[in-house]
């Protein structure tokens, strides 16, 4: 079967979503919008059409119709699709489990104007799919529904939701799709969230990110061989779980790049957070971290920096830019910070000015390297205020501060001065590693290491 032509908007930021109904014919044990948490009546038609009009006015090109399961309301679904297309929506995406889609109904959907479908084929193993769908016999009906949609030219993307039972089978899923559903060229690799029904079933269902990382990398290799696009959606995984070297396919990373200059990091702290494992990650500004409940339930298991933060005095890493301003930031400094396109952007200075702190926090810098000269009085005041301001910021957007202190007779006093301000990352420039280890033992909670700057 040939793959359908591209007939869906690729930019997720121009998609509007409506839920036709919250009722569902499946009972997924991981559902994060379970029917029991919502009113049983369908969304009134007038309300749906008013929402469609708002999307059109906002410039949205795709309407995503979801649920619950929208195909439960067969006639209303067709009517909504027709109205959306008549109002100027270019693409209509249907989110569905596909078990109710027959060849005849697929044809009706295509005629009404459905251009793509996002189908929850949860596993290529029938018993796993049925267990995760909460519906016996769902697997063959889902596959038949996908066949019917493809046959009428509707583009199909699949949404397996990795659970503990399927976390090692993702690559095999990709092989199955290539062999059995060759018309499908896109798979969105979600994972069970600790939300909704998933909270009650977390112990049994929540996957381990340590296992998912290698599984994702294997799946990406097989997908490339099959010419299938894999996507890491918002409800997918942190970058360190198999995605850091393919950020163009990670929705959060793409979203982070789309933000205005100076707005590093992601504004999703209501759902996700960075934890201790993220503190030295060089790509943290392109990643929202993990669900709050994953930190709570699993302690961040499997999360570790895929690229560890380098040293602006020694060897910055491949994901880092260093902008130096020995005489203090000027117009060219601020422009260079705003233009930098790496996940980590260092500003290296020897002085801080109180008047520049707000601009610094909006500059695009993700990390501050403070050359400890020792600092003058205003620099000390500015560093203290900056740390105080940082205490009110979310960890996802915090400007990390590292003090670089040259080896010398006053080294210990300067380390105490820096850490007394609240600076918890200190590099001893030109010092012996043994000295750094000894001081580190005396200063628990401080990331203290020896760094040898390059000669000259």
Would you mind describing this structure in some detail?
The chain has 456 residues and is an alpha/beta fold. The protein folds into two domains: 256 residues, TIM Barrel (Alpha-Beta Barrel), CATH 3.20.20; 132 residues, TIM Barrel, CATH 3.20.20.60. The strands form four sheets. Strands 1-2-3-4-5-7-9 form a seven-stranded parallel sheet, with helices on one face. Strands 12-13-14-15-16-17 form a six-stranded parallel sheet, covered by helices on one side. A two-stranded parallel sheet has the order 6-8. Strand 16, helix 16 and strand 17 form a beta-alpha-beta unit. The N and C termini lie far apart (63 Å). The mean pLDDT is 90.
The CATH topology name of the largest domain reads: TIM Barrel
C-alpha end-to-end distance: 63 Å
- Domain module count: 2
Query: Main sheet, how many strands, which sense, barrel?
Result: 7 strands, parallel
Total helical elements: 16
Q: How many strands? A: 17
Taking Cα atoms only, what radius of gyration do you get, to the nearest Å?
A: 26 Å
Oligomer: single chain
Taking strands numbered 1, 2, ... along the chain, how are they ordered across the largest sheet? 1-2-3-4-5-7-9
Structural class comes to alpha/beta
């Amino acid at each position: 079967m040939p793959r359908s032509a591209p007939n869906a908007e690729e930019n997720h930021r121009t998609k509007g979503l409506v839920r036709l109904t919250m009722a569902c014919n499946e009972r997924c044990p991981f559902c994060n919008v379970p029917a029991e948490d919502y009113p049983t009546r369908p969304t009134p038609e007038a309300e749906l059409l008013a929402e469609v009009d708002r999307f059109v006015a906002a410039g949205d090109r795709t309407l995503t119709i979801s649920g619950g399961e929208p195909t439960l309301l067969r006639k209303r679904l067709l009517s909504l699709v027709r109205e959306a297309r008549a109002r100027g929506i270019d693409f209509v995406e249907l989110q569905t489990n596909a078990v109710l889609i027959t060849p005849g109904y697929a044809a009706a959907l295509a005629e009404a104007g459905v251009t793509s479908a996002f189908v929850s084929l949860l596993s290529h193993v029938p018993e796993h799919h049925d267990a995760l769908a909460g519906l016996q016999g769902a697997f063959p009906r889902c596959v038949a529904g996908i066949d019917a949609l493809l046959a009428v030219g509707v583009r199909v993307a699949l949404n397996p939701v990795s659970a503990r039972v399927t976390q090692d089978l993702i690559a095999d899923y990709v092989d199955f799709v290539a062999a059995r559903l060759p018309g499908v060229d896109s798979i969105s690799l979600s994972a069970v969230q600790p939300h909704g029904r998933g909270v009650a079933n977390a112990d049994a269902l929540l996957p381990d990110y340590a296992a998912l990382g290698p599984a994702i990398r294997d799946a990406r290799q097989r997908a490339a061989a099959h010419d299938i696009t894999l996507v890491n959606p918002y409800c997918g995984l942190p970058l360190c779980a198999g995605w850091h070297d393919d950020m163009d396919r990670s929705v959060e990373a793409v979203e982070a790049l789309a933000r205005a200059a100076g707005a590093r990091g992601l504004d999703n702290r209501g759902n996700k957070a960075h934890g201790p494992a993220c503190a030295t990650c060089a790509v943290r500004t392109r990643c929202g971290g993990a669900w709050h409940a994953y930190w709570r339930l699993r302690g961040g298991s499997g999360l570790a920096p895929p690229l560890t933060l380098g040293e602006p005095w020694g060897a910055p890493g491949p994901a880092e830019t260093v902008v130096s301003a020995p005489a203090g930031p000027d117009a060219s400094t601020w422009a260079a910070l705003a233009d930098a396109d790496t996940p980590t952007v260092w500003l290296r200075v020897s002085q801080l000015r109180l008047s520049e702190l707000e601009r610094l926090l909006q500059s695009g810098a993700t990390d501050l390297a403070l050359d400890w000269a020792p600092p003058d009085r205003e620099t000390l005041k500015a560093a203290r205020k900056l740390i105080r301001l940082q205490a009110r910021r979310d960890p996802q957007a915090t400007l990390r501060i590292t003090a670089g202190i040259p080896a010398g007779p006053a080294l210990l006093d300067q380390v105490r001065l820096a850490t007394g301000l609240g600076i918890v990352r200190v590099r001893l420039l030109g010092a012996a590693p043994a000295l750094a280890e000894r001081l580190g033992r005396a200063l628990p909670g401080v990331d203290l290491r020896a760094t040898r700057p390059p000669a000259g």
